[in-house]
Design goal:
single chain; 34 strands; Alpha-Beta Plaits; 5 domains; 18 helices; 7-stranded mixed beta sheet; Rossmann fold
């Protein structure tokens, strides 16, 4: 019997420009996977595979690469650092066993860094922190470590220390080999017996320290910090050694039933659509038939591949603990659970799109092709939430920001050969009911049809989303019709009475009945859509607006002007922190009032201010401040026309 494999499913995560792709590139080089080191700025890095990534020098998609080093299999996922592509990071988190969080010794902790740290904490993923760019002017690793201990965790272990920091020939000193008192005391504090011996004057062995550190990292009680310069290959090997020594091995339970999750979709020139899968238990082989638990159907695997270097290679097998790519699953979607759902971790929502834009072909003849291309891209990135409004001949997507919009324009051109333009992005508002109300519908004519329903709509706490349950027994409404309503409730809430998605409410089916002869599939979906919109009309809805958390650092002479701007934008801020002639201001303001503030801030400070923001939830919009919009398509409140549309009698508004 073959011994268990030693696997690290590892995410390389960072804010944009911290140097994570450069770190990945040097790790590939040290492993012997590549013969020369690519550069992000020259578009030659291996993990930036898309043409647009190479041309722009930023990562747009998560890239999975596998290699062997010192008898350890590294499955590295290099993720985008720009907030516009947070969805790629979000999908990656679900399949990781450990992570390297890269920070710049110059820029320090940034908005995306904080978001990622919080996500890793919530998911209990072990983390190693790599402080990069110690060779840059302005590098200050000591200050950054202080901030890490203040804002992230005080349970950090500094394994090396920069020398000649801020100079082009900066290097590092190995503190573990030197067994410095600070390092020893931090580690032995996690083991009672080791601590007792240490207090008695007995120095712990390196193997004993490594064992305690390994356990502390696994349990997220200790967080190693390494410093270096990835560009100059300083500290890279130390990072790899720490990954191999201190991070936990992936599970190897191949005897258990198959359990995995699809976290990525892509295209191979030869194999077509290809699904990135993390397998938690079991074993898969070419030609296997597997249950798609999420979709409720069986899938046949034609080929199994791994991502080595810059291409997919046939392996024919995928075993527990590993990451691979499956072919022959044409309808699979990101997030689909394959096999048993039990071992698969829950999904994590890092952020959500807060802008909407219409996409228009420059050549009207490309309208249908553009719709198909966006459908394809939306399957690869479900956060795009593509809407093809055929009645209005409009194509809409949800986005995180302007950079994503620019990248999509390039991808549509280079990958699909379509020249497209985007409208000016608009803020995505949401609706929530003001008070509890009933909504009911009796859909009994024209025959054959029968669906009678009554719903109780109740406002929910902010951020609670949508909950649905039924108080009606299956003797009154058969289970298949109840399941039909449950499956379609989110679709019914896509547009409320103010034209926006409805959230933060509880929907309870309180009455209803079917008919043994006249009820048909689709009847209860139709009746539910009408009843819910009637209930929302009775309840009235309030608008919710997206809120951004911000942090501004600027010279102190601009404090008055900037704080006045924030108040004018309906923002709030915490007490000001002053240091070295600068101030740091943290708070929250609405997206609607701050969309262009980065440009204004740069103008009023002459580029001397730094602004970082991240999405921080939805809140009630002040009366008169939000934007309502017309219902797209035929509204369920236009009952007669809506019934005709749902029955296929009319196709346009």
């Amino acid at each position: 019997m073959a011994p268990p494999r030693n696997i690290r499913n590892l995410g390389i995560l960072a804010h944009v420009d911290a140097g994570k792709t450069t770190l990945t590139e040097h790790m590939l080089f040290l492993s012997g996977s590549i013969q020369s080191i690519g550069r992000v700025d020259k578009g030659t890095s291996l993990s930036d595979k898309l043409e647009v990534e190479r041309r722009r020098g930023i990562s747009v998609q998560a890239s999975t690469l596998s290699f062997m080093w010192r008898d350890v299999q590294f499955n590295i996922i290099d993720t985008p650092g720009h907030m516009d592509f947070s969805a790629e990071v979000e999908r990656t988190l679900r399949v990781l066993d450990c992570a390297v969080l890269v920070l710049s010794a110059v820029a320090g902790i940034q908005s995306q860094t904080k978001l990622i740290w919080d996500a890793l904490s919530d998911l209990k993923i072990p983390v190693l922190l790599f402080i990069n760019k110690i060779d840059r002017i302005g590098a200050d690793s000591a200050l950054l470590i202080e901030r890490i201990r203040d804002e992230f965790s005080s349970d950090t272990v500094l394994l090396n220390q920069p020398e000649r920091e801020g100079e082009s020939d900066a290097t590092v000193r190995d503190l573990f080999d030197e067994e410095t008192p600070d390092l020893i005391e931090t580690i032995v504090a996690r083991d009672d017996q080791l601590l007792e011996h240490y207090l008695d004057g007995l120095a712990p062995s390196k193997s004993a320290l490594s064992k305690v550190l390994r356990q502390g990292v696994k349990e997220r009680q200790l967080f190693p910090i390494l410093c270096g310069s990835a560009k100059n290959n300083v500290g890279t090997e130390a990072v790899m050694a720490a990954i191999a020594a201190y991070f936990p091995n992936a599970g190897n339970d191949t005897a258990a039933p198959v359990s995995g999750v699809v976290f990525k979709l892509g295209n191979d020139p030869k194999a077509g659509r290809i699904a990135g899968v993390r397998l938690f238990t079991g074993r898969l082989k070419n030609r296997d038939i597997i249950l798609n638990y999420t979709a409720g159907r069986e899938e046949k695997i034609t080929q199994i591949k791994k991502s080595f270097k810059n291409s997919y290679e046939d392996t024919g097998i995928l075993e527990a603990g590993d990451i691979g790519f499956l072919c022959g699953l044409p309808d699979v979607q990101i997030g689909d659970v394959l096999g048993e759902p039990g071992p698969v971790p829950g999904n994590y929502r890092l952020t959500e799109p807060i802008l909407s834009a219409q996409v228009m072909p420059k050549d009207k003849a490309d309208y249908a092709l553009l719709g198909e291309a966006l459908t394809h891209l939306s399957s690869e990135d479900p956060h795009l939430n593509f809407q093809w409004l055929s009645e209005e001949r409009e194509l809409h997507v949800k986005i995180m920001g302007r950079i994503q919009m620019e990248i999509l324009t390039e991808i549509l051109n280079t990958r699909f050969g379509i020249d497209a333009a985007f409208s000016e992005p608009t803020v995505i508002y949401k609706e929530t009911p003001v008070r509890a109300a009933l909504g009911e519908e009796s859909y009994t004519m024209p025959k054959p049809c029968w669906a009678i329903v009554k719903f109780h709509l109740v406002p929910g706490p902010r951020g609670s989303g949508v909950s649905y349950h039924s108080e009606v027994g299956v003797n009154d409404i058969k289970q298949k019709y109840q399941s039909e309503m449950r499956a379609n409730v989110h679709e019914a809430l896509k547009q409320g009475i103010k034209g926006w998605e409805v959230t933060d409410l509880e929907i309870v089916l309180v009455e209803g009945n079917d008919h043994v002869l006249h009820s048909r599939p689709g009847n209860f979906k139709l009746a539910m859509n009408i009843a819910i919109l009637k209930g929302l009309t009775e309840a009235n809805t309030a608008l919710l607006e997206p809120i951004l958390a911000f942090r501004i650092v600027a010279p102190e002479e601009y404090l008055g002007k900037i704080s006045s701007d924030i108040i004018e934008m309906r923002g709030l801020f915490d007490p000001v922190k002053m240091a070295d002639g600068h101030f740091a201001l943290s708070g929250r303001f609405p997206l609607a009032t701050s969309m262009t503030y980065a440009i204004r801030l740069s103008a009023i400070t002459g580029g001397k201010a730094k602004l970082s923001t991240y999405f921080d939830g939805y809140e009630l919009c002040p009366e008169g401040a939000g934007v309502s919009r017309a219902y797209k398509g035929i509204s369920p409140l236009d009952r007669s026309k809506y019934i005709l549309k749902m029955r296929g009698a009319i196709t346009a508004a």
